[in-house]
């Protein structure tokens, strides 16, 4: 059980990280270049990201990268019980983590875009520009103001992925909590089902609390 | 002088201004993306309605020789599945169950959630706190987990997964309904209605409902895509529709073993889910923009 939670946590964390990096990238570019083709492409991408059934996307990934190209392994977590951060194990994580990161990418991109385009219209940015601050200097100010909300969204997404990973874990046979839940459901093992869900819900609640605390630390205005 | 003789003619408005819903419809019809999404949904509904009568082959008819045919083979325009059933027919007939499983939970949750939200928002005070804190408990679970946990506990089947998805969607809808009702309740016209002696039921029916249903409805439409994905996901896990019924999620599940032999045929049912959920998301976005009369 602990091992399963660890596996799920690892997968969800990597997926959220990918989603955060990609989402921020798209969001910042789209927010800076409003109404350009980049912006439109990013918004289409984020609609696709929230609309795609991720279990199907997982299957398509397996079809393309495992069945047709034969580049990456389709299922499992690699040999041995223990997880090591090397390529032999990491290649097993690549497909599920990429698949899983699609939803947070879309949502974070959308949030960051709205934040950045909002911030760029504010008077203090115009003031900074009038003072002769370089583009990079202004960018730093934007990042500082956008960070608390973006991080909060990331934390919430990590929580959702922890709970929602069951479908992806089933597609990729990733031995995490989703896999455990699946077997619990089909063997009608209700105590296991209840226990797993309790642990996951606890993680979710604790994460939400953590997000609130970190957000207040980053931005003291929220505390008031 | 004629105006005085005929007062009705004098007060006739020169031009009938279009009503709110008329202008929403007009704006929606000008939105090309929403129009495109709407027509996709229309086609899907048509498939669901007349699908079983127009399919080229029996969707339940299996054949041992015709298993896992590729796309474009004679007799199987989109290939065949792992039991040799025609994919095209199954995809068309599958629209009925898939749409039903996606739409019904949101519809039920819309009715129940609006009721709960109205009650909490209009009553306010103690009742509000009691109801909303109970609703908050459901927020401790991510929606996917809640849906799977509920249908896992209830057991597989269409009715059970409909029930569990409805329960998943009630809390968010109730929350939206509560917040808009609380806003409307403080307005002057509600206050004056109360002053003229209207009872709570009349106020809610006449003055509150018309002003809160719009936002709640728009929110509910944005949940349809989520519901489609979740419902098919439940079937994909084997918790929803049971074989041999054609439903896209279940078809995706049974074809999962065939991804090395017929990869593109295996991916078809998921593509249908994807298209449907994009269409619903885009129509919902268009509806939200059209109903925003602040512009």
What can you see in these coordinates?
The complex is a heterodimer of chains A (224) and B (295). The relative contact order of chain A is 0.16. In chain A, 80% of the residues lie in helices and 0% in strands. Chain A has nine helices and no strands. The mean pLDDT of chain A is 79. Chain A has 224 residues and is mostly helical. In chain B, α7 (143-154) crosses α8. Chain B is mainly alpha-helical and 295 residues long. Chain B has one domain: MetI-like fold (Orthogonal Bundle). At the A-B interface, α2, α3, α6, α7 and α8 of A face α7, α10 and α12 of B.
Task: Annotate the secondary structure layout.
The complex is a heterodimer of chains A (224) and B (295).
Chain A: H1 2-32, H2 37-51, H3 54-68, H4 87-120, H5 123-130, H6 135-164, H7 166-172, H8 177-186, H9 190-218
Helix pairs in contact in A: 1-2, 1-4, 1-6, 1-8, 2-4, 3-4, 3-7, 4-6, 6-9, 7-8, 8-9
Chain B: H1 2-5, H2 7-11, H3 20-30, H4 32-54, H5 87-123, H6 125-138, H7 143-154, H8 158-185, H9 188-195, H10 200-237, H11 248-254, H12 263-291
Supply database-style keywords.
heterodimer; A: 224 residues; mainly alpha; 0% strand; B: 295 residues; MetI-like fold; 12 helices; elongated
Gap between N and C termini of chain A, in Å?
41 Å
Shape of chain B: elongated
Low-confidence stretches of chain B: none
Strand content of chain A: under 5%
Indicate the mean pLDDT of chain A. Answer: 79
Task: Just name the CATH architecture of chain B.
Answer: Orthogonal Bundle
Report the portion of residues of chain B in β strands. Answer: under 5%
Structural class of chain A: mainly alpha
* Computed Rg of chain B: 24 Å
The rounded distance between the terminal residues' Cα atoms of chain B is 42 Å
Given as residue ranges, the uncertain stretches of chain A (5+ residues, pLDDT < 50) are none
What's the helix count of chain A? 9
DSSP helix count of chain B?
12
| SS content category of chain B | mainly alpha
Total strand segments of chain B: 0
Helix content of chain B: over 70%
Largest sheet of chain B: none
Taken in chain order, the helices and strands of chain A follow as HHHHHHHHH
């Amino acid at each position: 059980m602990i091992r399963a939670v660890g596996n799920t946590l690892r997968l969800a964390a990597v997926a959220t990280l990918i989603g955060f990096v990609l989402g921020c990238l798209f969001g910042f570019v789209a927010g800076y270049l409003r109404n350009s083709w980049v912006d439109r492409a990013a918004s289409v991408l984020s609609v696709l990201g929230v609309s795609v059934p991720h279990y199907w996307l997982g299957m398509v990934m397996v079809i393309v990268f495992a069945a047709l190209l034969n580049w990456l392994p389709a299922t499992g977590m690699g040999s041995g019980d223990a997880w090591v951060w090397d390529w032999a194990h990491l290649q097993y994580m690549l497909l599920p983590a990429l698949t899983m990161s699609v939803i947070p990418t879309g949502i974070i991109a959308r949030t960051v875009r709205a934040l950045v385009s909002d911030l760029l219209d504010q008077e203090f940015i115009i003031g900074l520009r009038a003072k002769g601050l370089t583009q990079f200097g202004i960018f730093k100010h934007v990042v500082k103001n956008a960070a608390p909300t973006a991080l909060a969204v990331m934390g919430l997404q990590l929580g959702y992925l922890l709970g929602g990973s069951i479908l992806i874990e089933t597609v990729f046979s990733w031995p995490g909590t989703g896999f455990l839940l699946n077997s619990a459901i089909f063997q009608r093992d209700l105590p296991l089902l209840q226990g797993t869900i309790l642990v996951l819900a606890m993680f979710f609640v604790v994460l939400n609390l953590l997000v609130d605390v970190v957000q207040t630390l980053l931005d003291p205005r929220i505390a008031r | 002088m004629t105006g005085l003789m005929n007062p009705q003619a004098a007060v006739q408005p020169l031009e009938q201004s279009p009503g709110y819903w008329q202008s929403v419809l007009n704006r929606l019809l000008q939105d090309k993306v929403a129009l495109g999404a709407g027509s996709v949904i229309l086609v899907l509904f048509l498939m669901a309605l007349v699908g079983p009568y127009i399919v080229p082959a029996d969707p339940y008819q299996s054949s041992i020789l015709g298993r896992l045919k590729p796309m474009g083979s004679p007799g199987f325009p989109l290939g065949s599945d792992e039991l040799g059933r025609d994919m095209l027919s199954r995809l068309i007939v599958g629209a009925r169950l898939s749409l039903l499983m996606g739409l019904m939970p949101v519809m039920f949750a819309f009715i129940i959630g609006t009721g709960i939200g109205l009650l909490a928002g209009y009553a306010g005070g103690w009742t509000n706190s009691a109801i909303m804190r109970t609703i908050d408990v459901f927020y401790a679970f991510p929606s996917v987990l809640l849906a799977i946990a509920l249908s896992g506990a209830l057991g597989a089947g269409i009715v059970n997964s409909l029930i569990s998805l409805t329960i998943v969607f009630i809390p968010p809808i109730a929350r939206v309904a509560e917040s808009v009702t609380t806003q409307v309740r403080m307005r002057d016209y509600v206050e004056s209605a109360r002053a003229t002696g209207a009872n709570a039921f009349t106020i809610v029916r006449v003055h509150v409902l018309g002003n809160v249903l719009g936002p709640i409805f728009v929110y509910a439409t944005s949940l349809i895509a989520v519901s489609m994905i979740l419902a098919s996901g439940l079937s994909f896990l084997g918790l929803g529709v049971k074989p041999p019924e054609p439903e896209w999620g279940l078809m995706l599940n049974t074809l999962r073993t065939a991804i090395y032999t017929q990869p593109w045929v295996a991916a078809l049912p998921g593509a249908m889910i994807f298209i449907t959920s994009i269409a619903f998301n885009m129509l919902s976005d268009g509806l939200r923009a059209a109903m925003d009369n602040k512009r």
